[in-house]
Specification:
0% strand
Length: 163
């Protein structure tokens, strides 16, 4: 009788990969968001020449806190979704393999990946919607600082115009 296997190694690997990806790449996401928000029409926002200049300017003026603004929701979402994806992918591969040791065909690997993706996509879609809403709020705050509209329908008008 073989010893019981730990079933969470794939989930752990996915979660660690999701965390590492966000930890390493989040400053670039912040810079991308800043470039999207600053279209040049608002004079009180800093302008950046390029990505490297933006990273150095944000780091100098706001420190690491500025480069990692919004890190918590991003790292939670990525860690959880990649952990779940790898978990479901590993479980699907186990189910498709007849005796547990059989190598799967490329088609069954694809089916396993599609199944895992379908199971995780609902949560990922919700997280993406949250991230997009966060970016819209940042944009609206920057626009509100330069206008006196103050309308409660500003968000609805903005969503209608830009989505």
């Amino acid at each position: 009788m073989s010893p019981p296997q730990w079933q969470w190694e794939n989930a752990t690997a996915g979660a660690v990969a999701g965390f590492a990806t966000v930890a390493a790449m989040h400053p670039l996401d912040v810079v991308r968001t800043r470039f999207q928000v600053n279209d040049g029409r608002v004079s009180n926002l800093p302008t950046y020449k390029n990505t490297a200049n933006a990273i150095f300017t944000i780091a100098r003026s706001e420190g690491l806190r500025g480069l990692y603004a919004g890190f918590s929701p991003a790292v939670i979402g990525s860690t959880v979704s990649w952990g779940l994806y790898f978990f479901f992918y590993g479980r699907a591969k186990q189910r498709y393999s007849k005796n547990g040791d059989e190598r799967l065909s490329p088609g069954l690997h694809l089916a396993s990946a599609a199944e895992a993706g379908a199971l995780v996509s609902h949560g990922a879609i919700q997280f993406t919607a949250y991230e997009e809403l966060r970016k819209i709020i940042v944009d609206l705050k920057s626009k509100k600082s330069t206008s006196n509209s103050g309308s409660s329908d500003t968000v609805l008008v903005y969503l209608y115009q830009y989505t």
